[in-house]
Structure formats: C-alpha cells, structure tokens
Design goal:
This protein has about 260 residues and is an alpha/beta fold. The chain has a single domain (about 5-20, about 30-245), classed as Aldolase class I (TIM Barrel). It has helices at about 5-20, 55-65, 80-85, 105-115, 130-135, 135-150, 165-180, 200-210, 225-230, 240-245; strands at about 40-45, 70-75, 90-95, 120-125, 155-160, 185, 215, 235-240. The chain has an eight-stranded parallel barrel with strand order 1-2-3-4-5-6-7-8, surrounded by six helices. The radius of gyration is 17 Å and the shape is globular.
Length: about 260
C-alpha cells in the first residue's frame, strides 16, 4: 500500500494556511458504515436523465428484496422513493449539485434542504471542484458546510470527483471535509472522466481515518471490484450493478 504521509502533510499545510488550525471536534450526523452482508453496504443507484417512474419503482423493489443500504436517485424522484421505501429499512439517498458541483452555494444548500424536507435520509453532494482547482479553499469549505447545515441530521457524502484532482488536491478536499460536518467522502459521480480506484479509496481513508465514512462509486460492476474497494477502506459502494455485486458475480470473497 502506498505511503501517503508526504501527500497528506503537504495538504495539511495548505489547508491550515487557508483555514487555520482545525477545530478539535466537529459535530456530524451518525452515518451507516457497516453491514453483515455486502448488500447492506450498497447504494442501489439510478441517476441517468432518462430514468422513468417504472424504472425507479423497480429500483426500490430490488433494494427491498436484496436489502441494499439505500436507493440513490435524482432529487426529482425523492418523494416517490420515500413513499416506496416507507415500510422498509432501505434509506432514501439523493444527489445535489449533480453532476458538476458548479451551482451556487446557496442553490446547492437549498436543494439539500428541500430534498430532506421531501424525504431524503442521505444527501450526496458534488464538491465545488472549480473552487478547489482555483485554490479557493475557503469556498470549498463554505460549500460543504452549507450543505451539511442545510441537511441537518441527515448524513452528507461529499463527492470529490477524484479523477479531476491530483493526489494532494484529493487530500486537501478530504481534510476540508473533516472540518465541515459532512459524514462521508465519496470518490466520483460516475459522470466524469473516471470512476473509483483502489488507490483513491486508500488515500481518502488515510486522510480521514475513522472520523468519516468513505464511499466508492463509479465503474464498480463486479463483486471483485467491490471487495477491492472495501479492502482499501470503503464503507459504502455506489453502483447500478448492485444485484450482480451482491450475488457475487465477477469473483471475490463471500460474506458481506
């Protein structure tokens, strides 16, 4: 496994220079981070623009039947999913600022507030990638903290879109997330130039320790893929190939 100490140290210096010393304690909602079976770690996901009500209802039925952690959909579908999952233990998960993260901070926070009001139990937000690449670390923090505040007691997962970042930039994003009140860092939207990698998951886990969850998402299609992500430090998996993964298609260990 790669030694990330130098990368994290450089990132820490950049973050402290921009934001000061990190607070000793940050309040954040308790998030679901483990499960006795693989299915219970999976966010069963359908985010394509062409998703229909029939497909969303099927997604919910599959999640209940397989015991997935959540159903993850665009905000337009949250009320319908909340209704469909009302008598189950499957969580309602949605995405805000998706897929670019380039909406205004006020709009992103308000989207989070509305979707929680309509039944979302977890919120996956896309980070302001452009702010990070511009060196505006205060803006990155404000973006994350604004959504976390708007979501209240609902856990927020912040999507880094790791394929667009250097190792140091990924570490910076994770260290800012630790300050902001979000509950997870997440690799990818699945809509950019790349998805989750084992190396990215391992770096993210090294950055956040046990304080935050890590979600691997984007291009995870087999049980072997999912097992590798969990071995690297992921708590949750975002996937559309959830049934194949839960049933062990593509190899990998039993359990989970």
């Amino acid at each position: 496994m790669t030694d990330f100490a130098a990368v994290i140290a450089a990132a820490q210096a950049r973050v402290e220079d921009a934001l000061g010393v990190a607070p000793a304690c940050v309040d954040r909602p308790r998030a679901r981070r483990d499960a006795p079976r693989m299915a219970g770690r999976i966010d069963h996901t359908l985010l394509k623009a062409s998703a229909t009500q029939v497909e969303i209802e099927q997604l919910c039925a599959e999640a209940i039947a397989n015991g997935f952690a959540s159903v993850c959909v665009n905000t337009r579908w949250v009320p319908r999913v909340a209704q469909a999952l009302a008598d189950s233990e499957v969580l309602v998960c949605t995405v805000v600022g998706f897929p670019l993260g380039a909406t205004t901070r006020r709009a992103k926070a308000e989207e989070a507030r509305i979707t929680v009001e309509e039944g979302a139990q977890e919120v996956d937000m896309v980070m302001d990638v452009g702010a990070l690449l511009s060196g505006d670390l205060a803006g990155v923090y404000q973006d994350m903290a604004g959504v976390a505040d708007a979501a209240g007691d609902r856990p927020v997962k912040v999507i880094l879109e790791a394929c667009l970042l250097t190792g140091e930039q990924k570490a910076i994003a994770c260290l800012i997330a630790l300050r902001s009140g979000v509950a997870y860092v997440k690799t990818s939207t699945g809509f950019s130039t790349g998805g989750a990698t084992v190396e990215d998951v391992a770096l993210m886990r090294a950055c956040v320790g046990d304080a935050l969850g890590v979600k691997a998402s984007g291009g995870i299609r087999t049980r072997a893929d999912a097992d590798a992500m969990i071995a690297a430090g992921a708590d949750r998996i975002g996937a559309s190939a959830s049934i194949a993964i839960a049933n062990g298609v593509g190899g990998g260990r039993s359990g989970y």
